[in-house]
Structures are given as structure tokens and as C-alpha cells.
């Protein structure tokens, strides 16, 4: 009987595939170098000039390559054929042996690398493979471990000590010329795609003026101006860029204006931002968008903002998106909101049916309350049922209900309607925490703890349910950040044995104001708050405890982490919640606790607090209010 080697053969196959995978990625840079070489040698031009497919010897001769190197040229062409930059065909010779000759021809990919092609991508390709651009990637690991705020802006800044748009530290002006050529070639391609799209024709209908922000040499704006002679087009860029532009005087409806997009943008019906926002941090993007809002009229007056940029899907399996994202990280860095997705009750259909919700001058609180009177209790019911199911005991044992919300103000309150939806006992004691903002989750748990500890047999159901429908508005300078970070959500838990943040409920709904000083104020006072809370326990090492921090925003988490010298893993549950759901007011801390509990179990930790016995919950709200609660984790039994 033959031995069964199937498992060992499969193991060997998998091992070989893994080694091959590593090897392919290790030398994948040769794809870029081979493409760069083809452009520099002029291979696309040589084949194009020949007028028909060429043999390797004909190609070597056309490129003035020594015949001894023809075999090496053949190796290069094989790789480029595999990458679909060139195609091959075989020609059977009319001789006695019937030999075949291999011929090389252009593909659409290599046609776009012809230097005189109207949509050539050769300059952009050469710039991407230039040593000055690739050098920062060699410093990725060092950059990631560097904690200096200024030099950590981006690997490019870390390498050269300056921003990309301040110029590359080189005495050779060829790169500057290559950079401008690359931007021009990119604009030519985008303009061709844009001007032939029906969507853009709809955008330009009735438009009288357009400003191309960061328009460079005017290639994009010039193309639009030629296609739409009735539209006054303006190229807007920094003074040093505008001064060096060779202006197209033949296009009468095209002008050039120098300035700074962070300070002011010329007024127009349409503002165009092409490849602008991905270059900057969230904070700087907001500054630009504010200036755009000031520059265009209201929507009903024809105001439009046209953004052309790449959006990375979350999750994304699009290699081009992922590579472009890391490429931008390397060159420009820029701290983003870290929020990859959020959930909303409001839909486009609801907004179309109730357009006054987005009108900052219209009374809309009645409409909002009609929408939320059912939604908030329903959302709370859904999360409460999950908590009760995991608790594993009959809901008749629940003695108290604490409900926190900023989103529903009807009477009888959402707590009453929620109790009925859940079928809780009529005798249950209910408490509602209205307008508790982001610290409501901490406050609700603190009250629940006191009730459970001082009332034998008490079982307290804590629920926070929120929807941004109460605070959704058309963007304004004051309220743009809250619109960008808040999301809808609800959390539930059963418990047993100086005005930097402001919100106001008025006839137009709830408005929220966040001062840029909030992270600094919290960081300044967090040490004192912790010291007072842990004084009786004798803990002063904040890395020895687990952290349930309200994910108010990346700047708050970063400031707290830096101020206390926390290890990066300490706030990972908070960062995960921010990334997956955004800021959900009081419900957020419950999501953080749940994420920590599940992660601790998955990683085999000794306790639900990442293996630590003691921990802290810190939640932030208006005032500023900092709710600090000392937590003690439960041991995990496996």
C-alpha cells in the first residue's frame, strides 16, 4: 500500500507559493524601472516610427544599442510584454526550415507613453520613478517610529526637510521641469475624459464663470474655456506659479489670478478642485472648503463645487487606489479624520422630501422630531435586545432603565416609548438624560453603578441612542467639523452588583460648535483628573491600565496619548470605533468597551480589559465636561 503524501505535498506547494509571492514583491520595483527605461530609450517612439511591428534586432539598431546587448533588450521586452505595454506576434519565414521571427508592437498602454501623443503619460511616469520621489519610501520604517511632530508630517518631509510643493532639494532644475510636464500631461488626460462626459455637460449648463483652484499652467482651465467660450474661466494658483506661466493669449475667456487658496478664492459660479484635497490634512481641507463656500453663490443661484479626486474604498481591493493612497502618504502625509465609515438614518430620499432640513434659515425642528420620535426608540430597542440576549437572563429582572439621547425631545419621552417597545415591566424605574452630549455614556454608567451598588438586586439597563438627523445642516464655517465626524448609532449595557464645546437646540434643529482648542484643553487637564481618580488605588502609571476613551476625534486621542506618554495600543479600541462608526455621542464609549471586551477574548487575555485589572473611562462633553470613571475588569474564563 502506497503511503499518503497528500498533506505533505500540499504543504510543500503552499510553501513554494508563499516564497514565490515574497520574491515577486521583493523585485516588483523592476516593473517600474523597466517602464522608465523604455521611455528613456524611446522604445515606443522607435516602434511607432518604424510603422509596423519590429524584430529585436531592428529595435536595437533603431535605439543605437550594441548588437551584443540585443539579448538583454529581449529580456527587457519580455517583461514589458507581460505587463501589457507591448504586444508580440510571430512571423513564419519563407525558408526551408520554416523558422519564426518574433515581432514587437505597440499597445494602447505604450501609445500613451509616446512623448508627442496629445495625452502622453510619459512625464508623469518618469516623475513617479525618479530617485527624488522614491527615496522617501526607503525611510518608511524610520518615519513611522519618529515622534517629532514637524518632521513626521510625511516621509518626504522627513527625508528632505521641506514640503513637496516647496521644491525638491536639488540643484538640477530638470526635476522641476519634469514635475510641471507631469501635471500638464495629467490635466490633458483628465480634461479629455471630463469634456466628453454627459455629467460634466450637465454641470456646465447655464454656467457663466469657473475658477480652477491650483490650476498650474492652465491646461485644464484652457481646455474648458475652449469647449465653453461663453464661460469666463480663471486659473488660480500661487504667485510663483502664475508668474512663470506661458499664457495662452488665443483663449480670450481665460485669465490668471495669483493668490493663496487658504486665504481667499476668486468668486465664480463653479469652483474646480482637481487633485487638491488628497494633498492636505483634514484641517487644511476644511480651510479650503470654507473658502470655496465663500466664493460660490447659493445652490439655488447656480453655485457648484466640482471635486476631482481619488476615493479609497473601505475596504478596498483596488490595487491602484491602495498604491495611490500610500504614494500620497509618502509624498504629502496629512493627518486624516481616521473615520472610514459612518451610519446615518437620514437618506437622500428623506432629504429630498424635506429640503428645509438642509436650509440653515428654515424652521425644521418639527420635521426632525416627527422623523426621530420613532427612530430613536427603535434604534435603542435594537441594541438593547442584543445586550439582553448576551446577558442571558429574562428582561423581567431589569429594575431600572437609564436612557441618554440628544436626538428626541417628545413627551412622553423616548424612555417611556422604549420601555413599551421592549416589553419591560410597568414598574421599572426610568431615568432620561437629555442633551448629555458625548459624555452622556459615562454619566449614565456612573449613575447605573451607584444604583446597582446601593440597591440590592438592582439590574440597570443603560441605553444611549443618537441620530445626526437632529443636527444635520448645510455646511457652514462654524459647524463643518461636527458634520464631518458625527454619525448615528446606539449602545446598550446592563449594569449590576470655559465653553469649548457647545450645542443649541433651536427652530432650525441642533447646532454644534467645536473649538479648535478642545484637544489642548483636554490634554492640559487629563493628568489632574486621572491623578485624583486613582489616588486611593495608588496607580500613577497610565500604561498599566486599560483605556476606554471617548473617540471624540483623532486630535483629542493624539493629544491625550502624547500628554500621558501612552503606548499606541492603549487607545486602539477608541481609534477602531472612530474609524468604523465616527462619533456617536454617548453611545461611543459603549462601542469602545464592547470592542475591547471582544478583542481581549479573541487575543486570549486574562481579563476583559486587555489583561489589565484596572482601567479608566473618560468621556468628554460640553463645558468642557470630562467624566472620569475608574473601571475594574472581569477575569475571562476559557
From TrEMBL:
It comes from Chenopodium quinoa. Residues 28-115 form the O-methyltransferase dimerisation domain. One of its GO terms (biological process) is polyketide biosynthetic process. It comes from the Eukaryota. Residues 335-497 form the Chalcone/stilbene synthase N-terminal domain. Pfam families: Chal_sti_synt_N, Dimerisation. SUPFAM superfamilies: S-adenosyl-L-methionine-dependent methyltransferases, Thiolase-like, Winged helix' DNA-binding domain. The lineage of its organism: Eukaryota, Viridiplantae, Streptophyta, Embryophyta, Tracheophyta. This is Uncharacterized protein. Keywords: Acyltransferase, Methyltransferase, S-adenosyl-L-methionine, Transferase. GO terms for molecular function: acyltransferase activity, transferring groups other than amino-acyl groups; O-methyltransferase activity; protein dimerization activity; S-adenosylmethionine-dependent methyltransferase activity. PANTHER family: CHALCONE SYNTHASE, HYDROXYMETHYLGLUTARYL-COA SYNTHASE. Belongs to the thiolase-like superfamily. Chalcone/stilbene synthases family.
Amino acid at each position: 500500500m502506497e503511503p499518503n503524501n497528500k498533506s505533505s505535498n500540499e504543504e510543500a506547494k503552499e510553501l513554494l507559493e508563499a516564497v514565490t509571492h515574497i520574491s515577486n514583491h521583493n523585485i516588483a520595483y523592476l516593473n517600474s524601472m523597466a517602464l522608465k527605461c523604455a521611455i528613456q530609450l524611446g522604445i515606443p517612439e522607435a516602434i511607432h516610427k518604424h510603422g509596423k511591428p519590429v524584430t529585436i534586432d531592428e529595435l536595437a539598431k533603431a535605439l543605437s544599442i550594441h548588437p551584443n546587448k540585443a539579448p538583454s533588450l529581449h529580456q527587457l521586452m519580455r517583461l514589458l510584454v507581460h505587463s501589457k505595454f507591448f504586444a508580440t506576434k510571430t512571423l513564419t519565414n519563407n525558408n526551408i526550415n520554416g523558422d519564426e521571427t518574433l515581432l514587437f508592437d505597440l499597445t494602447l498602454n505604450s501609445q500613451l507613453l509616446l512623448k508627442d501623443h496629445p495625452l502622453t503619460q510619459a512625464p508623469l511616469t518618469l516623475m513617479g520613478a525618479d530617485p527624488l520621489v522614491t527615496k522617501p519610501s526607503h525611510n518608511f520604517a524610520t518615519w513611522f517610529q519618529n515622534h517629532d511632530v514637524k518632521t513626521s508630517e510625511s516621509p518626504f518631509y522627513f527625508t528632505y526637510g521641506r514640503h513637496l510643493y516647496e521644491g525638491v532639494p536639488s540643484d538640477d532644475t530638470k526635476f522641476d521641469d519634469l514635475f510641471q510636464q507631469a501635471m500638464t500631461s495629467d490635466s490633458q488626460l483628465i480634461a479629455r475624459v471630463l469634456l466628453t462626459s454627459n455629467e460634466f455637460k450637465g454641470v456646465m449648463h447655464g454656467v457663466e464663470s469657473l475658477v480652477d483652484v491650483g490650476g498650474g499652467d492652465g491646461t485644464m482651465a484652457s481646455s474648458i474655456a475652449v469647449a465653453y467660450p461663453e464661460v469666463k474661466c480663471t486659473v488660480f494658483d500661487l504667485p510663483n506659479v502664475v508668474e512663470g506661466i506661458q499664457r495662452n493669449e488665443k483663449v480670450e475667456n481665460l485669465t490668471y489670478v495669483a493668490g493663496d487658496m487658504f486665504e481667499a478664492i476668486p468668486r465664480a459660479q463653479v469652483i474646480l478642485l482637481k487633485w487638491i484635497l488628497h494633498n492636505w490634512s483634514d484641517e487644511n481641507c476644511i480651510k479650503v472648503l470654507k473658502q470655496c463656500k465663500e466664493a460660490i453663490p447659493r445652490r439655488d443661484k447656480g453655485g457648484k463645487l466640482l471635486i476631482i479626486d481619488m476615493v479609497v474604498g473601505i475596504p478596498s481591493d483596488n490595487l491602484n487606489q491602495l498604491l495611490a493612497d500610500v504614494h500620497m502618504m509618502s509624498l504629502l502625509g496629512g493627518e486624516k479624520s481616521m473615520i472610514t465609515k459612518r451610519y446615518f438614518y437620514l437618506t437622500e430620499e428623506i432629504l429630498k422630501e424635506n429640503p428645509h432640513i438642509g436650509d440653515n434659515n428654515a424652521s425644521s425642528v418639527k420635521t426632525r422630531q416627527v422623523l426621530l420620535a420613532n427612530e430613536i426608540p427603535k434604534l435603542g430597542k435594537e441594541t438593547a435586545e442584543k445586550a439582553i440576549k448576551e446577558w442571558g437572563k429574562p428582561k423581567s429582572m431589569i429594575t431600572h432603565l437609564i436612557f441618554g439621547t440628544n436626538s428626541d425631545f417628545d413627551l412622553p419621552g423616548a424612555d417611556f416609548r422604549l420601555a413599551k417597545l421592549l416589553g419591560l415591566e410597568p414598574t421599572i424605574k426610568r431615568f432620561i438624560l437629555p442633551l448629555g452630549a458625548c459624555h452622556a455614556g459615562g454619566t449614565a454608567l456612573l449613575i447605573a453603578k451607584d444604583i446597582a451598588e446601593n440597591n440590592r438586586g438592582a439590574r440597570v439597563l443603560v441605553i444611549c441612542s443618537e441620530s445626526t438627523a437632529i443636527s444635520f445642516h448645510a455646511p457652514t464655517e462654524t459647524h463643518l467639523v461636527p458634520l464631518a465626524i458625527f454619525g448615528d448609532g446606539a449602545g446598550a449595557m446592563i449594569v449590576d452588583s470655559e465653553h469649548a464645546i457647545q450645542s443649541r437646540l433651536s427652530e432650525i434643529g441642533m447646532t454644534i460648535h467645536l473649538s479648535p482648542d478642545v484637544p489642548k484643553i483636554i490634554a492640559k487637564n487629563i493628568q489632574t483628573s486621572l491623578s485624583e481618580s486613582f489616588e486611593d488605588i495608588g496607580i500613577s502609571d497610565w500604561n498599566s491600565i486599560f483605556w476606554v476613551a471617548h473617540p471624540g476625534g483623532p486630535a483629542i486621542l493624539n493629544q491625550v496619548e502624547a500628554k500621558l506618554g501612552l503606548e499606541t495600543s492603549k487607545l486602539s479600541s477608541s481609534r477602531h470605533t472612530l474609524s468604523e462608526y465616527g462619533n456617536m455621542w454617548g453611545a461611543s464609549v459603549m462601542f469602545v468597551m464592547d470592542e475591547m471586551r471582544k478583542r481581549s477574548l479573541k487575543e486570549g487575555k486574562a481579563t476583559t480589559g486587555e489583561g489589565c485589572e484596572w482601567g479608566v473611562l473618560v468621556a468628554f462633553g460640553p463645558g468642557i465636561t470630562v467624566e472620569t470613571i475608574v473601571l475594574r475588569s472581569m477575569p475571562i474564563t476559557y
